Automatic annotation (TrEMBL):
Keyword set includes Repeat: yes
Lineage: Eukaryota, Viridiplantae, Streptophyta, Embryophyta, Tracheophyta
GO molecular function: RNA binding
UniProt keywords, alphabetically: Repeat
NCBIfam families: PPR (TIGR00756)
Domain of life: Eukaryota
Name of the protein: Pentatricopeptide repeat-containing protein
GO biological processes: RNA modification
Pfam family name, one: PPR
PPR repeat residue numbers: 91-125, 193-227, 294-328, 395-429, 498-532, 533-567
Length: 675
């Protein structure tokens, strides 16, 4: 029988009138009861102390302090505080107990107030049991300056060598993002325990130093420090983030070697690591070997299949999950709804919606957002709007979903109206909001609205984000406002002008007939050491084609080799169109015959279009023959070939082409008039 059990059995002796417990015995009992969180027994002991008259004896100043500490250690804040306030002489133990209680109960400010009062009293000094909770409270309140002052007191008091104190300082500095200061504390610790190493590993990762997290882990292994479950849970996210699958597998071997693989948190971390590294087979093996899977286990697997493109398997896990008695949570449902959206599975989506309503999860913001997105992608925007109207409309995510859904369904004007209403209702847009709504402004090309958006982006500070500034320039360019686009372009620092930004502006100049400007921009881009890619070459070749810049276009086409870019069919299409517009149809056909890949329908279509303009029957027949094979149901090709025959007076061949259309069952799409 252990000491605690013996103490509990002997309590009956202290509830008699003949035996009066000493302060030492009361202290022993109080700490036994507190360790077991036995509030009822502490109350009984408190009552016995009162009725026995102990409070009137010479020890009365000591026993109330013990009782206050006992209530504090058992977690009962009101009783502990009430007794503490009545103490005439507050002991170090009573202060420490109250500081610990406030910290553990989630009242860090009160803990620091108690600490300050302790210092002001001048009767008791903080010790190694005080500081860890004070430091933790500083961290929770993000009070860096106060935390630095406390660190100074710790150094002055000489308790910095205590491992518990060192660990608390290490965690505090990591919570402030002060990695170097945390590392200094760690290096100066004499007795590092597994908690010290784990805190440094997880802190490095959370502060964006995943590689350093792995380095610390390697140092830990080299130091022969024994790892535990928390070590594994701390280091695996770094492997996942860096996609270091080989290191992840070695850690998995360590898990097996140290018999840590029965812990569910460790297994969930392993699954998450394999999922994020794209190794779904390994993730599934760990998943299948896990006996008691929780909602995190299932959600990780479902998310993994979605991220890795296997949405059908993700959905198939749901009935298995329910059969095992694990109910999806809001995050699980959000993932499943995302799968339904990708697959356009409206029926499954409605089923999950019903399940969410039945389990009161439909008001969760993740589920709301998932439902709006799912219905929009399934082209049931009415349901998206209905779901959105049931939300509180105070969070940004549902607004982003309805904006994105509007654009998904071609409702560009409505998307802009939603964006305006969002701001009127006081909901703050974020970067994702702006990215959602930019396509609507780009398609509607209403210059007045674009100017209003520009003003908002300046006022809100979003224009400092390079990708959003690029989006705005793209809208100006598509609206034909090339001057505004260029002015905005020049306001972006030279070092921040990436290939996407240059390509957007080059494309805008090309589409609006300013081929010379597009070529000039392309040359400036090259001079600025920004290497062209396939997209930028497509944009400038297209600009040359529409502006008749044949020599420039051919020069740029040949330049692709200098950058190791193999021309794609769409690059050939631009050059063939360029040559065709210039009447160099034979040269265009010669280029086609030299293509390293089989020409597709756009390549032959460009040649046929050129043959139509220049009435080249011979090459027109070659192009038409290939197009009839590649896309036999495209009526436009038959009509173009028929027009070529008609233009040169070969009426019989023109009639034959029309007969071919009739035999295949093709009909020319009727024209439409706005009159």
């Amino acid at each position: 029988m252990n000491g605690t059990s013996t103490a509990l059995l002997n309590i009956s002796h202290f509830f008699t009138r003949t035996i009066v417990p000493t302060a030492t015995q009361i202290e022993s009992l109080l700490y036994n009861y507190a360790a077991n969180k036995s509030l009822t027994d502490i109350k009984k002991l408190h009552a016995h102390v009162i009725t026995s008259g102990l409070l009137t004896q010479w020890e009365s100043r000591y026993i109330p302090a013990l009782l206050s500490s006992g209530y504090a250690l058992s977690g009962h804040l009101p009783y502990a505080r009430q007794l503490f306030d009545k103490l005439h002489q507050r002991t170090k133990r009573s202060y420490n107990s109250m500081i610990k209680l406030y910290t553990e109960k989630g009242f860090p400010y009160n803990a620091l107030e108690m600490f300050v009062e302790m210092l002001k009293s001048g009767r008791t000094k903080p010790d190694r049991l005080t500081y860890p909770f004070v430091v933790k409270s500083c961290a929770e309140l993000s009070m860096l300056q106060f935390g630095l002052s406390v660190h100074g007191l710790i150094l002055h008091s000489g308790v910095e060598s205590n491992t518990f104190v060192g660990n608390s300082l290490l965690a505090m500095y990591m919570s402030f993002g002060k990695k170097d200061e945390a590392k200094r504390v760690f290096d100066e610790m004499h007795d590092k325990c597994v908690v010290s190493w784990n805190t440094l590993i997880s802190g490095c990762f959370k502060n964006g130093f995943a590689n350093e997290s792995l380095s610390v882990f390697n140092e830990m292994i080299d130091s022969k420090m024994e790892i535990d479950n928390a070590t594994i849970v701390s280091i695996l996210p770094a492997c996942a983030y860096l996609k270091e699958i080989d290191i992840g597998r070695k850690i998995h071997d360590l898990v097996k070697k140290n018999n840590l693989d029965e812990n569910l948190y460790v297994r969930n971390a392993l699954i998450d690591m394999y999922v994020k590294c794209g190794e779904m087979e390994d993730a599934r093996i760990v998943f299948n070997e896990t006996n008691q899977r929780d909602v995190v286990t299932w959600t990780s697997m479902i998310n993994g299949y979605i991220v890795n493109g296997d949405t059908r398997t993700a959905i198939s896990l749901c009935p298995l999950m329910l059969h095992e008695g694990v109910n999806p949570n809001a995050l699980t449902l959000a993932s499943l709804l995302s799968s339904c959206a990708d697959l356009k599975h409206l029926k499954h989506g409605k089923t999950f919606h019903a399940w969410a309503m039945k389990n009161n999860l439909d008001s969760d913001v993740n589920v709301e957002t998932g439902l709006i997105d799912m219905y929009a992608k399934c082209m049931f925007f009415t349901y998206s709007f209905r779901t959105f109207n049931k939300t509180s409309k105070t969070r940004t995510a549902p607004w982003n979903a309805i904006l994105s859904g509007s654009i998904e369904n071609g409702l560009y004007t409505e998307a802009i109206l939603f964006f305006k209403k969002m701001r009127l209702e006081g909901v703050g847009p974020n970067e994702a909001t702006i990215k959602c709504v930019l396509p609507a402004y780009a398609i509607t090309t209403n210059l007045k609205q674009v100017t209003n958006l520009h003003g908002y982006l300046i006022r809100s500070g979003f224009l400092s984000k390079s990708d959003l500034a690029t989006g705005l320039i793209d809208i100006y360019a598509k609206s034909g406002a090339l001057e505004q686009a260029y002015v905005q372009f020049t306001e972006i620092p030279l070092k921040e002008r990436d290939i996407v930004l240059w390509s957007v502006l080059i494309s805008g100049y090309g589409k609006h007939g300013n081929g010379e400007g597009a070529v000039l921009l392309f040359n400036q881009m090259v001079e600025c050491k920004v290497e062209p890619n396939e997209v930028s070459f497509t944009s400038v070749l297209h600009a040359c084609s529409h502006s008749g810049l044949v020599d420039e276009g051919l020069r740029l086409f040949k330049m692709m080799e200098d950058y190791g870019i193999t021309p794609r069919p769409y690059h050939y299409t631009c050059v063939i169109d360029l040559l065709g517009r210039a009447g160099r149809v034979e040269e265009a056909y010669g280029l086609i015959t030299k293509m390293p890949v089989s020409p597709n329908c756009t390549v032959w279509g460009a040649l046929l279009g050129a043959c139509t303009v220049h009435e080249n029957v011979e090459l027109g027949e070659v192009a038409a023959k290939r197009l009839f094979e590649l896309e036999p149901e495209n009526t436009g090709n038959y009509i173009l070939m028929g027009n070529i025959y008609a233009a040169v007076g070969r009426w019989e061949e023109a009639e034959n082409v029309r007969n071919m259309m009739n035999q295949i069952g093709l009909r020319k799409s009727p024209a439409h008039s706005f009159v």
